[in-house]
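Bug #77: duplicate submission created two jobs. Keeping one. Sequence:
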Amino acid sequence: MKKTALTLGILAQVLVNAQSIKTNIDLVNIKDDKVAVSMEFPKMKSRTVQFHFPKTVPGTYSVDDYGRFIEGIHFFDNKGRELAYTKVDDNTYSLKNAKALSKVTYWVNDSFDEETDTSKHKAVFSPSGTDIEEGKVYMVNTHGFVGYIDNMQDVPYQLVIQKPKDFYGTTALVDQDHSDATDTYILANYAKVTDSPLMYTKPDYVTFNAGGMELVLGVYSPTGKYKASDFKDNLEKMVVAQKKFLGDMNTNKKYAIMLYLSGDGGPSVQGFGALEHHESTSVVLPEFLSQEDIDKTLVDVVSHEFFHTVNPLKVHSEEIQYFDYANPKMSQHLWMYEGGTEYFANLFQIQEGLIDKNDFLKRINEKINNSKNYNDTLPFTVMSKNILLDEYKDQYRNVYEKGALLAMCMDIELRKLSNGEMGYRDMIRKLSQRFGENKPFKDDKLIGELVKVTGYPQVKDFYDQYIAGSQPTPYAQYLDQVGVEVVKQEVPPMLWFINDPNQTGYNEKNNTFTFDESLALSPFAESIGFEITDEVVALNGKTIDPKNIQSFIEYAQTIKDDQDITLTVLRKNGDKTDKIDLKGKAILTKLTSETLQYKANPTPAEQKLQDQWLTGKK
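Kept job's structure:
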């Protein structure tokens, strides 16, 4: 029996090799900061084919054009003769004599090195990008390295990674060979390829079991400031809590986290955060953060990505199930995929005891305030469906603000309708049972399915008004039902550069303040010709002390109305950056603070609903 089983195993492996696309990524012989890739194909059936790199990938909601990082591409027949091709655009190559096609070779540039130059193309979000640092680290988001042929996306891939012998690859994939010089992985199709990131660096990883799931955490810390073991206890506590919160909705047996910490000597990374996959997540954070801040960020960011193992990875429309990498069609339900997931990432922390009720309410308060920076009357379904278009892309980040708040309000609505017997989590559980990883729903039929699984037609009313409609969501009205009130307070006016100072970002490399392009400029900033892409260097000669940023803010608060101001900024000018002074008179911005607080004397009904909301208990 054993001999027969082994023989069948060998024959199966030979069959896979013969019918698969053998892809080799060479992380050993780096040339000018580029990686060589080769792909060998089974026999072609079509006379004309198109070879693509992705225009975008699931979970990013942006046009990234990964083909622009490709150089020196060559196509060959089985005798090594080069085949002619036509380059259609950055991502697509067309071959007319494709039946002879046997192999393609090319070089891959990394995206991290181009993040600071957005003159020609918007930067790739770092966690979905690629990094090639010879002898240090290789961030292999596979969609940035591996292409595909039309009508061959369901063909298996044999992925071979040539690596330095002393490097370790953090991934959820299982290595099929025992060589120190190569790792070999068998993947069912191209979707599985793009769903399987890897990070290669000198070994720094920990593995542990959390709630019956094997988890591996690999860390790259350029200065050696941190080790994977530093974050183990925090992650273990978080994942156990998540598994308990999800219950039978999560069936993962293995999960990998690749934590890339950017710091001195490396590329100037700008896009901090994470990107989800079925069995892993890639995370990029600045190394200068304290361990406490990294731990907190990991809980918030990684928990969000882990919850994506349910939604949208197991509950999704046909647009995601049959994702078109070359000409993507977007779903209209980002409110659920991202907003609902972000809500889960906060709700589980209060329900599983990781934060207290005041911390939770503070987070909701921040999301309400942040959502005011976006168009509150724009239907979420319209924004979602068209998110790749320029006129909508600046609204994307509202999925983490208003999107989460929509899920919260729907949660409260369901709990009130059901007398606490059903909430948003129960709805998603029923939806996942009705559909699943390989059974998508029709995008325009979702609301009917939500009514069906909940049994409440009022869910459609909510959806039509606040998600598909243009009516602003009455957060105060819903929060009132769970014993929460809004307290308004006037704040002393101050000089700042955007209407909401809390949305200010910080560029560690340039020691400057930065701002998201979706934010509204303050009247002062508009009056002096400030541009939202400018980076603030100094205010009347007062520079930013990275060890005491608060001192800059306190100085800004001393500025008087109509005072002479010189604002020093960095401004992009083609391929270079200019330091310029903008001068004018101070215009102070009037601010009103709206704070959420629990009612001192809620009604019994409000208190009951609040308890059910914050504990998840019925």
